[in-house]
Amino acid sequence: MGTDPLPLDPRIAEALASVSTATLTTVLLKKGLRNVWLRGSRPLAPGQPRIVGHAYTLRFVPAREDLATPASWASPISTRAAIEGMPAGCIAVVDAMGVTDAGIFGDILCARMKQRGVAGLVTDGVVRDLAGVLGTGLPVWCQGTAAPSSVTGLTFVGWQEPIGCGGVAVFPNDLIVIDMDGAVVVPAALVGDVIPAAVEQERLEGWIMREVERGVPLPGLYPANEATTARYRAWVDGQQDQGPK
Amino acid sequence: MGTDPLPLDPRIAEALASVSTATLTTVLLKKGLRNVWLRGSRPLAPGQPRIVGHAYTLRFVPAREDLATPASWASPISTRAAIEGMPAGCIAVVDAMGVTDAGIFGDILCARMKQRGVAGLVTDGVVRDLAGVLGTGLPVWCQGTAAPSSVTGLTFVGWQEPIGCGGVAVFPNDLIVIDMDGAVVVPAALVGDVIPAAVEQERLEGWIMREVERGVPLPGLYPANEATTARYRAWVDGQQDQGPK
Amino acid sequence: MGTDPLPLDPRIAEALASVSTATLTTVLLKKGLRNVWLRGSRPLAPGQPRIVGHAYTLRFVPAREDLATPASWASPISTRAAIEGMPAGCIAVVDAMGVTDAGIFGDILCARMKQRGVAGLVTDGVVRDLAGVLGTGLPVWCQGTAAPSSVTGLTFVGWQEPIGCGGVAVFPNDLIVIDMDGAVVVPAALVGDVIPAAVEQERLEGWIMREVERGVPLPGLYPANEATTARYRAWVDGQQDQGPK
Amino acid sequence: MGTDPLPLDPRIAEALASVSTATLTTVLLKKGLRNVWLRGSRPLAPGQPRIVGHAYTLRFVPAREDLATPASWASPISTRAAIEGMPAGCIAVVDAMGVTDAGIFGDILCARMKQRGVAGLVTDGVVRDLAGVLGTGLPVWCQGTAAPSSVTGLTFVGWQEPIGCGGVAVFPNDLIVIDMDGAVVVPAALVGDVIPAAVEQERLEGWIMREVERGVPLPGLYPANEATTARYRAWVDGQQDQGPK
Amino acid sequence: MGTDPLPLDPRIAEALASVSTATLTTVLLKKGLRNVWLRGSRPLAPGQPRIVGHAYTLRFVPAREDLATPASWASPISTRAAIEGMPAGCIAVVDAMGVTDAGIFGDILCARMKQRGVAGLVTDGVVRDLAGVLGTGLPVWCQGTAAPSSVTGLTFVGWQEPIGCGGVAVFPNDLIVIDMDGAVVVPAALVGDVIPAAVEQERLEGWIMREVERGVPLPGLYPANEATTARYRAWVDGQQDQGPK
Amino acid sequence: MGTDPLPLDPRIAEALASVSTATLTTVLLKKGLRNVWLRGSRPLAPGQPRIVGHAYTLRFVPAREDLATPASWASPISTRAAIEGMPAGCIAVVDAMGVTDAGIFGDILCARMKQRGVAGLVTDGVVRDLAGVLGTGLPVWCQGTAAPSSVTGLTFVGWQEPIGCGGVAVFPNDLIVIDMDGAVVVPAALVGDVIPAAVEQERLEGWIMREVERGVPLPGLYPANEATTARYRAWVDGQQDQGPK
User: Fold this and answer.
1) Cβ neighbours of F140 (radius 10 Å)
2) CA distances (Å), D35 to each of B152, D91, D164, in order?
3) Does the predicted model carry a pTM greater than 0.95?
4) What is the predicted ipTM?
5) What torsion, rounded to 10 degrees, do the Cα atoms C145, C149, C155, C158 define?
């Protein structure tokens, strides 16, 4: 169903290995995109890894008692079928319409995703059976936990379609980056522009942070005025003279 | 795009001509369906007609600045293209995710829908250019009005797909009935069962109302106990003896 | 069930005949009560009368599918039984927990209340079958209308108990006053103090309004400084010299 | 207190006399501004006039019982003092933090504003004493009505300062335009650019509306493709040949 | 006040010792009950035990300044009196109407409940004095913490009455089960039916989980088709042949 | 900009060293102040210290795309300028209007505040770059974390002005006390009265807690009746006879 998933170019993963989601939002803002951070995408467990991958989208609508039943789990259009289509390395992004009283997945589905090599799960909803989900080791970002199953509040309708998640539009194969601050979408068409700008922004902010730690006041430093920019450029040149780190 | 629209059987429209949405929800509840009334579907203007039709669904996701632009209005996947596919007599049901600060349609799109014979528009969002929309004469049920255009807050992604609208699942070609209390969905598969039960329920409640007006107390009357039921059946029989009205 | 209703002293109704709910809230605020106005208590229809009466309370909790059924309407603890206990002149105050997608009453129950001489209905929920309810002539203040019946979202549990309604505590037999601004509760124990202060406040504000219309600036006038107070007292004395109006 | 108010250039009022707030938001969106419509700014009464004026801002913070008292109404920093500084023709824009259970103004303050020639009042809060406020004839856009006074929920802290109102930033002397769709802010620095673009957009949409009424389908018409644009330009030229209207 | 508490049958506690709340909600859904999980019932501290007990209900309404005072704590209808009626092993279920800015109990009341042998406290509100409450060792599920006392926002009105808690109806002596996913109510009348179904569901899901870990894909496994069911039944028979574990 | 900051009298810090925010809210309630606890002020990290200091206020309004830009960070009215005015020992209290999808500060600004000796940061919004902020060691109380920067959702407009924060009015130099339960404001004018009452209340509740642990039932103990008060007074006298602790 829907758009075919794409493998992730390993150079993208490498380039973004040390770029925070905070930095990505700053770069996207400078390109005019303010609405790229998925509200409610909190880490389920402390210590979850930073992940980068293509979005594999799933979509729910509200529950209707004739459709949202345990029997529907055996339908060809079911979360089970969607999971069996997930490629290794993808990030499952699930539109649960922000519903917090019906867990979209429990331990069994998360275990299967982990087995298939899915990098992580992000949703604006919640999961169920917290102990079991933690046991699978699948990294999850969501709004929390609820005991009831998905069909208590949600009807599953498809995968690899455009969705809204946490108030943000996500299209199949958009790039997703997630860390302690949650999940950010980088639109597929902008990835090429965003990566170099983000890497540079991260380096600049690292340098500014060291200046602050040295006691330099903020005005003129952050954002950098001309004199500060010159100092930074000199530092960059010095770094590069020392060869690759 | 999506499911083909279906024409409405005129016998359905006739049978439901005098059945209120309140009665339909009672009948659906007795079949186990509690979640069939579209929240936020208030009449835009007083005196709008009661309407019955098949759902023709439209779907939005949140705005992303690279996609939700005035230029997108010329895309093949646009509200314009969706409107040109609407058959006469359908009811446009629009999933705006409950967004109340971006009007999905203004006077121009509503005028075109009216020209195509669309029976009405229902959404969990809002419309814009209130004066202009009222001028088109298209019956609208929604959450109100906002000046900004759809792309200020929404990205259009498709039509005749399953949607959520006002917290209810709506599938293309489900039956929609709307009156002063708002919009109710009758799942396509249940229409045959629901209609006779609804017509009977309406007749029963009409009779009970007359009993109340005669001063009969509620206990035993509503719901009807055995004695009341016998009196009602006798009245029904008397009515039928007098021939069709 | 619960506390016995009390008849309203006609002198209270007379004294409050021309006191607005806005004035009552000001007087109650001066006595330290800020939380006396029922949120969401909007008039259902234009032109509803100003009413004064004792609270007759009803209480709902959320729906549970084993309890909230059409069959429950015949139970001894039902809205029907509660209505049959309402005395003429009371104001039914219904705790619907702010639920807006299940109408607490429709045309039949409202017709019965009207027949029993109930002065009005106020709730933080909604009613159903708008056309029918308007037809009964019962004055209603609520959050609006929904097609589904009460049992779709609510379980009825009792009457003449303490309740919350619109974020305010209401006890059986508290005094309720309702006008275009909605409903205010005057705690039973404070009625004796509140009435004379409210009548005087209303007179004072009427005089100030006339001063404003004459072009007097606000500072010193409202609130009144010493000079203004002296002028007002002189006017009051003049009024009283002219004998009762 | 705060920024001095500025008189409105009558050419601005004239130019915007027939431009809707919907059109203004479209023009502002094309300049990158999506957040310019004040949420919750609904007309208090039907038939209120379209108004244009400079923002005269007022600011509340939450109530604290030691500060938000009837006595505070006599303070030099009070709504009374703010009103006495309002110039004729201004639009009072009041940040009530979206509070809907404390009316910012009642009949007396609105009467004084009307006397001073204030063009209208817009707030993300509510007013009190609905009957009295309607009686003053001051046009009001707000979220509705509540009986309690401002100090029940709000502390007044100043005027002609930057504020948020309905989720939008408003600075003193920004241009405000209000019609049936609510209130839009045009930042002072953008007025010169926005007006000609808005006038042209309004003319274009008027022409498109007539084309729709003639039965022209939407694709290619709205937005206009090259052929449509050529037809429109020809029509404009024809109009201008006929001389000023 | 209200319904007498009942002791818990120890066989119920034993049967449910290894059944998760997630499994209970699945079983209740199959019986038509979707609304049984208390929203907002999150563990206050990590590592709280799984508990099972009868509901002992408490009920608050909103604060009114003449009633909700520190003096009210000495009234015969007070949280103190309610606590003194709690039997060992009960679970206190407190309807705080979802209020999150007034803590229903602090260290002193929780210490007393712990002394009386109360198994745990669940509320849709919050507690206060977090350090102190944690110090008592009483397991608590709630929405979090706030410094203000209950009377800042709530008036206590009774105990062992029907309540709403977290959007769910709870009656005195309903069965409550709580784990890391929060609290689920099993209606008293359904306990006999629910327990064997839940024990079987738990065993089935445990077997499916092991199948997933072996790499079996989801379709046909979960939910189980005929072949899977046969394999499961064979495994169950094998287990039972090996005698009790 | 705004009011000058004031140094904290060290005797206040000392007196409040062992008084909880819960106790402070009880004392303030007895003086008629119910609205003094900042909603949403949760500790960002476990183990943050208890802090006392004067409020240094910052104020945001909603984002407008022409104002809320990375370029604005270099303006004289910027968060940077505000931070450079913060005295050692102050508590930064930031009105972010409860916005949870734009982080007001990240690691760089928090590092600078830490360097200047700021005691802590409290806001009704969120911070960004969680790992970086935790690294600075600045104690933070807020609603959580978001990746986007402040200008994504907020426009900074000033400091040391009256603000609302978490639904509470805060004026520059009000006293702020924060612990695990969040932040409480003690109005500057009431500090002298509140401190001795709070110290005494804390001692009384400590004694009551010990009585509960001895098994004394609540009625008559908490609140204390005459006999209990006499016992407590005797204990206090005994304590004081033993000399200062």
Assistant:
1) 25
2) 8, 19, 11
3) yes
4) 0.95
5) 70
Whether residue A46 has a cis bond before it, omega within 30° of 0: no
What pLDDT is recorded for position A245? 47
- Cβ of C169 within 8 Å of Cβ of E36? The answer is no
What whole-number distance in Å separates Cα of residue F216 and Cα of residue F221? 7
Taken in order A190, A196, A197, A203, the sign of the CA dihedral is positive
Q: What single string gives the DSSP state of each residue in C11-26? A: HHHHHTTT--HHHHHH
Yes or no: say if D86 and D56 are a contact pair by the CB < 8 Å rule: yes
Name residues whose C-beta falls within 8 Å of residue E116's C-beta, 6 or more positions apart in sequence: E83, E84, E86, E87, E88
- Residues in chain B whose Cβ is within 8 Å of chain D: 63, 65, 70-71, 73-74, 80-81, 83-84, 100-101, 103, 106-109, 111-112, 115, 128-132, 144-149, 151-153
Let me know: does E72 contact E156? Beta carbons within 8 Å.
yes
Angle at A204 between CA A202 and CA A209, to 5 degrees: 95
- Selected for mutation to probe chain D from C19, C41, C181 (highest D CB count within 10 Å) is C181
**Beta-carbon contacts below 8 Å between D and F:** 76
Q: Per-residue pLDDT tens for C113-135?
A: 999 999 999 999 999 999 999 99
Token pair, residue A238, equals 């010095």
pLDDT of B72-93, one tens digit each? 888 889 999 999 999 999 999 9
Q: Cα–Cα distance between F72 and F82 in angstroms, integer?
A: 13
Contact C182, C21 (CB under 8 A): yes
Q: Which residues of F touch E (CB under 8 A)?
A: 20-22, 24-26, 29-30, 34, 36-37, 39, 42, 167, 179-182, 184, 205, 208-209, 212-213, 215, 217-219, 222-223, 225
Are the CB atoms for A64 and A108 separated by under 8 Å? no
Beta bridge partners of A81: none
C-alpha to C-alpha distance for C126 and C150, rounded to whole angstroms:
9
Which tokens is E167 given? 């959007």
C-beta separation of C39 from C141 below 8 A: no
Crossing angle for the helix pair F107-115 and A191-213, nearest 10 degrees?
A: 10
Closest CA to D26 of B132, B135, B146: B146
